[in-house]
């Protein structure tokens, strides 16, 4: 009877496993160390945008000045509650809690929208043209954060002093300002407020009416860059500047696997991997044949004596043992030395001590018998004292039978 042929040849199976393993390792390498392929490419107002209406130059300016900048694509409002400055620049959608939730945060800079652009097909990252955002959409946003406020749009180019502690001059094309709504002016313009503050308890919500103060095209005009940075520093007490990109439609949940291989979590990942490798090595590796398991109960006198001693200690019966041991050895030594047979125990002990004195031996039995009697009458079990006394009785026996020079316990 011939053996059936395998469904897949070993060589084919090896190639399949090799190619599959290589593809898996390559995918993991791209996932962990590759440049994210979903980096937003946009010409809309955003910190990712290099277009004229984008905010990338503003974010880079802050970084070059040593300000910690976090472009947030997940949980921006939660990050804003941690004490830094949250910037929501020209949002294209409302947050889940509504714009009214911004008033509950410590520090927020809300930048109103102004322009929308059309992508230039010939020049990636550029806009071919721009147009104002619909007035209705702007009014809905403004009423959500400052009820009663109104938007004022100008024409031409306007240049005016920022005033106060900001200094310098700002310059805008078709300026956009706000008025009313109970806002307190931070920077005033000819037709309204460029920056207004809404009272919100312990928090501070500033509204920047014209985004050209920090757009890629407008930040280079007059003193716009310096005043934009001064606004951030005036509103930010400490911590990072969080620039929200969730409300531009760029939400992205964190990659936990990539996070595990970034500092400081990389240290924990290496420690965990080392622990797993040590566990596998300890569980699979060995040298030579495995050791045989010991029998449940070892044979021999030593085991029997050890078990008996353990039972005596466990039962608290060690104290009477030296007295019985002394009686037994006194009888055996007396018989070996032809001592009196009909004598009482006291007479036998006295006779043995007289023999020891005649032989000039050092140990006497009667003192040992007294110690054994006191130990037997003690209420508390004392295994150590019982063992020491038993050893002394044993040495007395060796001395009586073999002499002081042959006593193995002497010296």
Quick tags:
13 strands; 17% strand; elongated; two-stranded antiparallel sheet; 411 residues; disordered C terminus; 40% helix; alpha/beta; 12 helices
**What is the strand tally?**
13
Count every helix, treating DSSP H or I runs of 4 or more residues as helices.
Answer: 12
List unreliable stretches of 5+ residues.
407-411
- Biggest sheet, spatial arrangement of strands: 1-13-2-3-12-11-10
* Major β-sheet profile: 7 strands, mixed
Give the structural class: alpha/beta
Helix content: 25-40%
Envelope shape:
elongated
Q: What is the CA–CA distance across the termini?
A: 83 Å
What is the rounded Rg?
47 Å
Q: Give the rounded overall mean pLDDT.
A: 81
- Compressed to H and E, one letter per element, the order equals HHEHEEEEHEEEEEEEHEHHHHHHH
How much strand content do the residues show?
A: 15-25%
Quick recap of the structure?
The chain has helices at residues 10-33, 56-64, 76-80, 135-145, 224-235, 256-260, 265-284, 301-315, 321-336, 345-358, 365-377, 383-402; strands at 69-72, 85-89, 107-111, 115-119, 127-132, 149-153, 157-161, 169-173, 176-180, 184-188, 193-200, 203-208, 241-244.
